[in-house]
Write a structure and sequence with these properties.
Layout: H1 8-14, H2 20-34, E1 41-45, H3 51-58, E2 62-67, H4 70-83, E3 88-91, E4 103-108, H5 119-131, E5 133-144, H6 146-151, E6 157-162, E7 168-178, E8 183-194, E9 197-209, H7 213-222, E10 225-231, E11 246-253
Parallel strand pairs: 1-2, 1-4, 2-3, 4-5
Antiparallel strand pairs: 5-11, 6-7, 7-8, 8-9, 10-11
Bound molecules: S-adenosylmethionine.
Length: 254
């Protein structure tokens, strides 16, 4: 089943308490800490509904967003219109040829890189990022750290949230970890409940990968980058940890 086809409608409601501002500010801090010159233009790959991008635009950056999900882009476009934003939002993915522009930085936020589950897809993603960067330009993203995932296995869970009309729904998450393939299969089911009976509105399989630092270093080198920085979320001075699934990484185009 196509990822983010039916799930997209619920996406912003599910993540309404996610601290996008803190993440957008952190990626800005991370980029500034590694940049040699001033960063003005940013390409965001996998921008989804443009939550981080609207904040980065407010912080003064000129943003182009690209996402392969038609539904996420449609929702993003509505939001940009409402906000009077100048963000250029395109539907497409990293297998596209070229956007014909080069940027000071490329970002991918909220485990976009995790969706690149094969060596080929990761290479395609990195090559696409590379060709859209000026020399010395930076690629920053968050990703899952393999040792942390292997040590603390994913849990199945259920959360409830309210959609835009205020109706309650549930998101069931069932995870199967394939360590040999380095892939976590997450099944997202969106359901509503009426008199104890559940109705399913979306049922999607998302496959996500995770990385050792060595794998990222090799992939960087293969695709014209150098991995220059990695750290824990919101902790620029703290090295990645096997106690935390999430890490942030910066690569520089060489
Ligand atoms: C978890 S969502 C994150 C969306 C958004 N960045 C956010 O923080 O809410 C991952 C997004 O990455 C997009 N995506 C994954 N791989 C992609 C690729 N190779 N090219 C373009 N979009 C991609 C998906 O369509 C999806 O919208």
């Amino acid at each position: 089943m196509k990822q983010f086809a039916k799930y997209a409608r619920y996406y912003d409601s599910i993540y309404k308490d996610k601290d996008y501002k803190k993440e957008a500010d952190f990626v800005e801090q991370l980029l500034k800490s590694q940049a040699k010159g001033k960063i003005k233009n940013i390409l965001s790959i996998g921008c989804g509904t443009c939550m981080h991008e609207l904040i980065l635009e407010k912080s003064g950056y000129k943003i182009t967003g690209i996402d392969r999900s038609e539904k996420m882009v449609a929702l993003g476009k509505e939001k940009l219109k409402e906000a009077g934003s100048k963000i250029k939002l395109l539907q497409g993915d990293t297998s596209m040829k070229s956007l014909g522009t080069k940027f000071d930085a490329v970002v991918s936020l909220f485990n976009v890189i995790g969706y690149q589950t094969t060596v080929e897809a990761l290479d395609t993603y990195l090559a696409f990022s590379n060709k859209h960067l000026k020399k010395g330009g930076l690629l920053a993203f968050d990703a899952w750290y393999q040792p942390a995932i292997v040590l603390s296995r994913p849990q199945n869970k259920e959360i409830s949230a309210k959609d835009a009309e205020g109706n309650e729904f549930f998101r069931k998450t069932t995870s199967v970890l394939d360590i040999k393939k380095s892939v976590l299969h997450i099944r997202f089911e969106i359901q509503t409940e009426n008199n104890g009976t559940r109705t399913t509105h979306a049922d999607e399989s998302h496959y996500m990968t995770f990385f050792t630092m060595k794998e990222l270093e090799i992939a960087a080198q293969k695709n014209g980058f150098k991995l220059i920085k990695s750290c824990q979320p919101f902790e620029i001075k703290k090295d990645v940890s096997e106690d935390n699934w999430n890490m942030w990484v910066v690569m520089q185009k060489i």
